[in-house]
Write a structure and sequence with these properties.
By secondary structure, the protein is of the alpha+beta class. The protein has five helices and 17 strands. The longest helix has 19 residues. The protein is globular, with a radius of gyration of 22 Å.
């Protein structure tokens, strides 16, 4: 009897262990556009990753990166090209969301591109490893290279909603390209939608005692292009929106390439923001950071899960993906917005 009970418990534990590890999501064709992107993230950073016409692209977001209008801004878009390009066709193509380890990979069997976010530091890692040597081209792209009029449709994503000021704009970022890195940031002015809301609600007499999270807020980051050199600017249009790009090319062809994007935010001025970036960059140890991040995701999935009765139902799949996205914002000082927020792909943020 004891042996039977022990065997049953052992089989039950194996069943739970199998369910606790989520199933990977695998795509075998490239995406038509950003609406077919795949989520990736960690800490308080979210990415939308997709492959389009052989280019690997991803939007970068960070929880709390609000502008003067209280719009949660994307931090920019990265475009990665390889030469020769292993992703010129769908032959052998796979884009995989490795849920248990919390990262996305793109491969054709002979080249693998891993994209992951450090859970404990605001750092995005891109690692390229191929059986053949290749050169890489990395572009940082932004539609906020100039001020943009705030339309009624776009106002739905900020605090103005239906009351758009006549001179309402999404202000330009400051983007500075150097030989081996590019920095980008959005700096809020001292007058924001917060001031309008305070006046509208008749709270001007207590304004100085109210918490204002967006006054003077600086959000943005830096693309560290080690082993690459700046090769110029370019322009394009995506989703009926024009943008500008800044391109970096590898010095030579190698089997392996790596680059990072680091993010920072502060209300304490530009000097503090730059010092914060330098401190984050100095703290990067890719090998050790990857081990810690993957361990965190492994433990995350063991804490709770839904047993779908041996059948991967649509409800279980949706729950797992939503839980993953919540996990990508686990260490933010801001809660994940109800609509998926910073992981939801939009061309107008």
């Amino acid at each position: 009897m004891k042996r039977t009970i022990f065997t049953a418990l052992l089989l039950l534990s194996f069943a739970f262990k199998a369910v606790a590890q989520p199933i990977d999501y695998i795509w075998e064709t490239q995406s038509k556009n950003s609406s077919e992107s795949m989520p990736c993230g960690g800490g308080d950073i979210g990415l939308n990753v997709w492959v389009e016409n052989g280019d690997i692209l991803f939007y970068i977001s960070r929880s709390g990166a609000f502008d003067e209008n209280n719009t949660l801004l994307k931090q920019g878009r990265i475009r990665l090209k390889l030469n020769p390009n292993p992703f010129n066709s769908n032959v052998g193509f796979k884009q995989i969301l490795h849920l248990n380890n919390g990262y996305v990979s793109v491969t054709n069997g002979r080249c693998v591109v891993d994209i992951w976010v450090d859970v404990f530091k605001p750092v995005v890692h891109v690692e390229i490893n191929g059986k053949e040597k290749s050169a890489i081209e990395v572009g940082y792209e932004s539609w906020r290279y100039k001020d943009r009029a705030l339309t009624k449709t776009e106002a739905q994503q900020c605090s103005y909603k239906w009351i758009v000021p006549k001179d309402g704009v999404t202000k330009a970022d400051l983007i500075s390209a150097k030989s081996d890195n590019i920095s980008f940031y959005h700096r809020n002015s001292d007058i924001t939608v917060f001031d309008m809301a305070v006046e509208q609600q008749g709270l001007s007499h207590v304004k100085d005692s109210l918490y204002n999270p967006i006054k003077g807020l600086i959000t943005g980051g830096k693309l560290i292009a080690d082993g690459m050199v700046f090769s110029g600017e370019y322009e394009g249009s995506y989703g009926d929106t024009d943008y500008k790009g800044w391109r970096y090319k590898s010095v030579g062809s190698l089997n392996s390439h790596n680059f990072n994007i680091i993010l920072n935010e502060t209300q304490n001025g530009l000097d503090d923001w730059n010092k914060g970036l330098a401190s984050i960059e100095k703290s990067i140890n890719s090998r050790a950071d990857k081990i810690k991040t993957r361990k965190w995701w492994n433990e995350f999935w063991k804490r709770s899960y839904i047993n779908g009765g041996g059948e991967l139902t649509e409800q279980v799949r949706n729950y797992t993906l939503f839980r993953y996205m919540l996990g990508c914002n686990a260490y933010s000082k801001w809660p994940t917005k109800f609509n998926g927020a910073y992981l939801h792909s939009t061309l107008y943020s």
